[in-house]
């Protein structure tokens, strides 16, 4: 398996060579030169496997430069009942006939990001130890990626984490998860701006080749290919859990802001998993909903980014969309680079009529958006009708799933986080506080450690340089 850049300017590399990085040297995103494909017989052979065995069967197709025994050991170390609360790892909750929620938030930070980040932490430590190297991770979070990354990397040998987040824009619980960590290798930076500004700062650092090389800058945001690979696994697990027989078409609905989680679903579909439609659920920051309904991708400015009650999706530049558009436009690096040049000039682009038709037909994408009122109504409806509490982001998914359900086709909604992370919204919807796991009940009372910074790239570089060792 070789990896290339969506923009065509990177020589092929192996998995371990691209694992620690973010953007490719030409500013593009790393993708496999081809997707491994699975036959009907291959799928049937995978259907009955445990989560760890399934994960090894999928991930090993993308990772062939780590000895199989070592890779299997890393996977077995990651996906345990102790870490995720159940041997199933991602069990499904049946709401009614043909409608399910796949539980992805049973990990240490109560969000789906743990599913990939816990493995990434172990992979990073393994690869760094093998090479005798260190890394400084510079990332940005709108809510859940930061805590998942920090919990995965805390105490890891040879790893420092510099995590940017928008000042005052996350829920109190999300802030507490990150800022209460006292590990010496964790640095929290609260930026006086929106998430997109944080993301732009991280991209600027990654685009400075000399700085990146000198300080060994790596990435764990959703642009990291290792995260995408790990997320592919649970789409296979969810499919096998609901399909009566291999080959039956199943729909998945995925709340998405940066297009990372649903990008993994697209990869699973390209590998041969019989997914019919992929439904993208957004909030009022609906740049993705607009794209999948009209074919126009026009990221908004920071002054057009709304603060919502599903804050982890308050994003108007969907970084991972580049990977899908690369496939959609025939994997033409020059064409993709030209399209993203217009994005970087704040103009955006519109798909051709042919590509738009292929996106909805051949690739099966659909979308919908929610408002705050929709989220409140969805939380109430799911609780009153099914006795299940869902967080505001999963509520965005429920709203979109209802809009796109088809009789006789199973729909799986991908859970985003546990309700405990969003107490104020849950209180508004249900009139009571959400259930809080005992292990984190007093988290918001603990001392918090973070630094406040304006959205200035040079200030960030100076901060990293002073602490990078």
UniProtKB/TrEMBL annotation:
Iron as a keyword?
Answer: no
Cofactors per UniProt? pyridoxal 5'-phosphate
Q: Which keywords does this chain's UniProt record carry?
A: Lyase, Pyridoxal phosphate
Q: Which InterPro entries has this protein been placed in?
A: Thr_synth_N (IPR029144), Thr_synth_N_sf (IPR037158), Thr_synthase-like (IPR004450), Threonine_Synthase (IPR051166), TrpB-like_PALP (IPR001926), TrpB-like_PALP_sf (IPR036052)
Residue ranges of domain Tryptophan synthase beta chain-like PALP in the record: 90-329
**What EC number(s) does its UniProt record assign?**
4.2.3.1
Q: Where is the Threonine synthase N-terminal domain?
A: 2-79
**Enzyme class, broadest EC rank:** lyase
Q: PANTHER family per the record?
A: THREONINE SYNTHASE FAMILY MEMBER, THREONINE SYNTHASE-LIKE 2
Say which family it is in.
Belongs to the threonine synthase family.
| Record protein name field | Threonine synthase
């Amino acid at each position: 398996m070789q990896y290339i850049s969506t923009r065509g300017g990177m020589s092929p590399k192996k998995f371990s060579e691209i694992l620690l990085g973010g953007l490719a040297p030409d500013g593009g995103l790393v993708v496999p030169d081809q997707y491994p494909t699975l036959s009907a017989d291959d799928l049937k052979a995978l259907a009955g496997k445990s989560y760890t065995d399934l994960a090894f069967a999928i991930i090993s197709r993308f990772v062939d430069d780590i000895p199989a025994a070592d890779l299997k050991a890393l996977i077995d170390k990651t996906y345990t009942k102790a870490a995720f609360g159940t041997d199933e790892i991602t069990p499904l909750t049946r709401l009614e006939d043909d409608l399910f929620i796949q539980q992805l938030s049973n990990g240490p930070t109560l969000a789906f990001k743990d599913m990939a980040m816990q493995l990434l932490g172990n992979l990073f430590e393994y690869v760094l130890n093998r090479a005798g190297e260190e890394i400084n991770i510079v990332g940005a979070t709108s809510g859940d990626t930061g805590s998942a990354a920090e919990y995965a990397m805390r105490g890891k040998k040879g790893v420092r984490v510099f995590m940017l987040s928008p000042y005052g824009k996350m829920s109190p619980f999300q802030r507490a998860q990150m800022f209460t960590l006292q590990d010496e290798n964790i640095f929290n930076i609260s930026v006086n701006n929106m998430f997109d500004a944080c993301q732009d700062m991280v991209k600027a650092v990654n685009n400075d080749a000399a700085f990146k090389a000198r300080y060994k800058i790596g990435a764990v945001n959703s642009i990291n290919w290792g995260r995408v690979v790990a997320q592919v696994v649970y789409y296979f697990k969810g499919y096998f859990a609901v399909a009566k027989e291999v080959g039956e078409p199943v729909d998945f609905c995925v709340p998405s802001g940066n297009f990372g989680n649903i990008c993994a679903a697209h990869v699973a579909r390209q590998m041969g998993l019989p997914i019919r439609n992929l439904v993208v659920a957004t909030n009022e920051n609906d740049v993705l909903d607009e794209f999948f309904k009209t074919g126009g991708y026009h990221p908004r400015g920071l002054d057009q980014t709304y603060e919502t009650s599903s804050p982890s999706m308050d994003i108007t530049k969907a970084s991972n969309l580049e990977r899908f558009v690369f496939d959609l436009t025939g994997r033409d690096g020059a064409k993709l680079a030209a399209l993203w040049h217009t994005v970087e000039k704040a103009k955006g682009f519109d798909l051709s009529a042919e590509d738009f038709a292929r996106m909805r037909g051949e690739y099966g994408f659909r979308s919908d958006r929610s408002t705050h009122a929709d989220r409140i109504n969805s939380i109430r409806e799911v609780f009153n009708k099914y006795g299940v509490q869902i967080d505001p982001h999963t509520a965005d998914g429920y709203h979109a799933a209802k809009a796109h359900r088809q009789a006789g086709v199973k729909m799986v909604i991908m859970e985003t986080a546990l309700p405990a992370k969003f107490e104020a919204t849950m209180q508004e919807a249900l009139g009571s506080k959400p259930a809080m796991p005992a292990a984190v009940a007093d988290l918001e009372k603990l001392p918090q450690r973070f630094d406040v910074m304006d959205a200035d790239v040079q200030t960030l570089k100076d901060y990293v340089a002073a602490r990078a060792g």
